[in-house]
Design brief:
The complex is a heterodimer of chains A (291) and B (374). Chain A is mainly α. The longest helix of chain A has 32 residues. Chain A is flat and about 75 Å long. The two termini of chain A are 45 Å apart. Helices cover 43% and strands 15% of the residues of chain B. In chain B, the strands form three sheets. In chain B, strands 7, 8, 9, 10, 11, 12, 14 and 15 form an eight-stranded mixed beta sheet that branches. In chain B, strands 2-1-3-13-6 form a five-stranded mixed beta sheet. Chain B has a two-stranded antiparallel sheet with strand order 4-5. In chain B, α3 packs across α13 and α9 packs across α10. The longest helix of chain B is centred in the C-terminal third of the chain and has 16 residues. The radius of gyration of chain B is 21 Å and the shape is globular. The chains are: A mainly alpha (291), B alpha/beta (374). Chains A and B meet through α7, α11, α12 and α13 of A and α4, β2, α5, α11 and α12 of B.
Chain lengths: 291, 374
């Protein structure tokens, strides 16, 4: 009775600390407007710059381009290998994601659920590839892959990118496996589930968010990798970052850079929508928080 | 005379590099190139012109060319990573900054000497054949363009642009935040201005810096005066993030005068990212410019195709297209477009050579330490 009274007494106080609906709505609208400005303005600027007419420069004091043209779109689509680079990059990233998952899965399970001497040291050691400068890794790995006659091959690129993607996959899967309550696994054992059934029916469903998070990290790591691809893959294989340098590098032209940015936005948005279906914010927060 | 100097200068470089290609006649080189069947060109800029040349070369000789545009240092690291392999993947290498050439020359990585083999190299300035950014290239690379750093202004906003160093200093003092140059670690036009400042502030010329492959500390002992000056004016100028960033700020009206590359100015006007009336000039106080060059790596798998490609793109018609497509003047003195924004007289009077690579690298590092991080 006393506890019921105390709850009733506390309730109005809690309500009084809640923001009033009008204030909450105002803050939500403000946040939404800021978000639109934050993402919308750069996007609008990219669209406008991609349409600048070379005959009528967009210069001070003009607020908007005096006239529009598809000149830069025609130039970029006609003179760069961006199409084949996008295809190579996404194929490579998909294969790397799969291979880093297959290789990372047993490692992560062992690190999360098995006790062995030096386990904590191994957890740190697997992060080494992301702690070293990219070009240093590219040079040493380039030598090794050269010795194995794997430079200028797709397999060599997969191997190299997988090495760089695995730290993310292993770390995230390890934290995911560590978070699975032991009681659930014990219950599966007690109910007579074999190793395969336990993995497929218990562990895998619980690990899906972690696998998805690790996969996205692995995919993006491969997609953004420049140094290793440049040393090991070019000129046979060109990916988005290696092609991008020609347009966005030393003598970048703003109008062409805007076109490239917009082209690259499309697959990224698709990827984001796919990720949205698989991931919930709290899972990602969990993975990031324990990384 | 010049060829004598070159022969003497090249005696110590290259060693036992394969010489047979250099003793062949051009029909034999062409046949060898066709037998090789392909070519890989690595550069850090000028992709429009290189792509056009690749298409033209393939059309003429049936040899497909892959153009790879990458960061200057990434190209060097790739070349170094493949140095000990019998065959690398880079054939023709576009040599830009002094530290790149310094590394390749020191590492004995260039095939040649090829300059005398390529028809028309007698039309190049003697200085360009011997030095690139102050580093002796000794015929192991063929100077291919002639791009200059200078100043750009919008005549609608600047009536009387500075010519002498005193006028430059006065402009900065009288027009706070109206002059932009880029952080020298982020692009050559800023490097050009910083070099000009060092040379003008110290007043002892730049000859003493030429030809050194290593830094002589005694020659930079008095550079503190330059850093003091930069620190004094830092609040009154805009230090940008790159060559194009400076031009963007000029285009957007934030500044009215900027250090820039001649080629970037032409491309900016052409692409609608600079006012059509923007004027580029090389001030009388002198700003550096010079040639980039094309070389062939010693372990290039397609040396004959590389040599044929360099010879092809060095011909007058192809060199004229470089200005048309890229805004870069030819390294050939006999190819000057009628609509060039900077006349030969202005180039001869006001353009300076880059000081040697070790000193250039040093002032880039020191500017960051002594000015930006101060």
């Amino acid at each position: 009775m006393a506890s019921a009274l105390s709850i009733e007494a506390a309730a109005p106080r809690r309500r009084s600390r809640q923001p009033r609906p009008s204030l909450a709505a105002f803050l939500s609208l403000l946040a939404f407007a800021l978000l639109v400005l934050w993402t919308g303005v750069p996007l609008a600027m990219a669209v406008l710059w991609s349409l600048v007419d070379p005959e009528n420069p967009w210069s001070f004091p003009a607020v908007l381009p005096p006239s529009l043209s598809l000149h830069s779109w025609r130039y970029v689509l006609g003179s760069t290998d961006i199409g084949s680079a996008v295809l190579t990059s996404f194929t490579l990233a998909a294969v790397v994601t799969l291979s880093s998952f297959l290789l990372g899965l047993p490692t992560a399970w062992a690190l999360a659920r098995r006790s062995f001497a030096g386990r904590e040291a191994v957890k740190v050691l697997v992060l080494l590839p992301i702690l070293m400068p990219g070009m240093v890794i590219a040079l040493f790995l380039g030598r090794i892959l050269g010795t194995l006659e794997l430079t200028q091959t797709f397999a060599g690129l997969v191997l190299g990118h997988t090495l760089l993607a695995m730290p993310f996959m292993i770390r995230i899967l390890t934290t995911t496996f560590e978070a699975i309550p032991g009681e659930i696994l014990d219950a599966a054992d007690n109910l007579g589930a074999g190793a395969v059934l336990k993995f497929g029916a218990v562990i895998l469903p619980l690990a899906v968010p972690g696998i998805a998070a690790g996969s996205i990290f692995a995919f993006i790591t491969s997609l953004e990798e420049f140094n290793l691809t440049y040393v090991v893959g070019t000129p046979t294989y060109q990916t988005i970052p290696t092609v991008l340098f020609g347009t966005l590098g030393y003598h970048f032209v703003r109008t062409n850079a805007a076109v490239i940015s917009l082209i690259l936005l499309a697959p990224s948005v698709v990827l984001l929508l796919i990720a949205e279906r698989w991931l919930k914010a709290e899972y990602l927060a969990s993975a990031f928080g324990r990384l | 005379m010049l060829s004598g100097v070159l022969v003497a200068a090249t005696a110590g470089i290259g060693g036992a590099a394969a010489q047979d290609l250099l003793t062949m006649d051009w029909p034999a080189i062409e046949a060898a190139a066709k037998a090789e069947g392909e070519l890989n060109v690595y550069a850090f800029a000028n992709e429009d012109w290189l792509n056009a040349m690749a298409e033209e070369f393939e059309g003429k000789y049936g040899i497909p060319v892959t153009i790879v545009i990458g960061d200057e240092d990434a190209n060097l690291q790739k070349a170094l990573a493949e140095k000990d392999r019998a065959e690398g993947t880079i054939d023709v290498y576009w040599l830009g900054g002094g530290h790149i050439i310094q590394n390749l020359i020191k590492g004995d990585m260039l095939y040649g000497p090829i300059a005398q083999k390529v028809p028309g190299t007698d039309k190049i300035k003697a200085d360009y054949l011997m030095f690139q950014e102050g580093v002796p290239i000794n015929g192991y690379a063929v100077p291919i363009n002639d791009d200059h750093t200078g100043l750009v202004y919008d005549p609608a906003r600047v009536a009387d642009p500075p010519q002498t160093w005193e006028e430059m200093v006065a402009f900065i003092n009288e027009n706070p935040q109206q002059f932009a140059f880029n952080d020298p670690s982020r692009g050559g036009s800023g490097q050009g201005f910083v070099q000009a400042a060092i040379v003008n502030i110290l007043g002892s010329g730049q000859d003493k810096y030429m030809g050194d492959l290593d830094l002589d500390a005694s020659k930079v002992a008095d550079w503190g005066a330059a850093w003091d000056w930069f620190n004094a004016i830092e609040g009154g100028v805009v230090i940008t993030g790159g060559n194009r960033d400076s031009l963007d700020r000029l285009n957007q009206g934030e500044v009215s005068l900027a250090a820039a590359w001649e080629g970037d100015t032409i491309v900016g006007r052409r692409e609608g990212t600079l006012p059509k009336g923007a004027v580029f000039y090389i001030p009388e106080f002198g700003m550096p410019g010079g040639a980039d060059s094309l070389g062939i790596l010693k372990n290039a798998p397609h040396k004959a195709a590389g040599l044929l490609f360099i010879a092809h793109v060095f011909q007058p018609e192809q060199q004229a297209r470089m200005y048309e497509l890229q805004g870069s003047l030819s390294a050939r003195l006999d190819v000057l477009p009628s609509d060039a924004q900077v006349g030969m007289e202005e180039i001869e009077q006001n353009s300076r050579l880059w000081i040697a690579g070790p000193y250039k690298s040093y002032f880039i590092d020191e500017f960051v330490k002594q000015v930006l991080q101060n």
